[in-house]
Specification:
0% of the residues lie in helices and 31% in strands. The chain is mainly beta. Strands 1, 2, 3, 4, 5 and 6 form a 6-stranded antiparallel β-sheet that branches. Strand 2 and strand 3 form a beta hairpin. It is globular. The chain starts with 13 loop residues before the first strand and ends in a 9-residue tail after the last strand.
Length: 85
């Protein structure tokens, strides 16, 4: 899976979901490969079959996306900031 600019989506990426308006999320699970960040069991989300699972910091909890559009901007790789419980 890739961002609109062609960069590969990776675990731990911090992503702006709103074209720079501050709606951010972190990539937790790469569904197709079954990979997940520490503390997350990717098998719990394999019913989605593809896409990524994000920790949505706006309060929506978990967010599943099957594609990234122009409004989705990679902010940081391997982001280690606080994550919601």
């Amino acid at each position: 899976m890739q961002y609109a600019d062609g960069q590969e989506v990776r675990l731990g990426d911090l992503v702006d979901l709103s074209s720079g308006k501050g709606h951010t999320a972190q990539v937790l699970v790469l569904v197709c490969s079954g990979e997940a960040v520490a503390g997350i069991d990717a098998r719990e989300w394999d019913y989605f079959h593809d896409g990524v699972l994000l920790d949505d910091f706006s309060g929506a909890d978990r967010l599943h996306l099957t594609a990234f559009g122009d409004e989705h901007i990679l902010l940081a790789r391997n982001w280690t900031g606080p994550r919601k419980a």
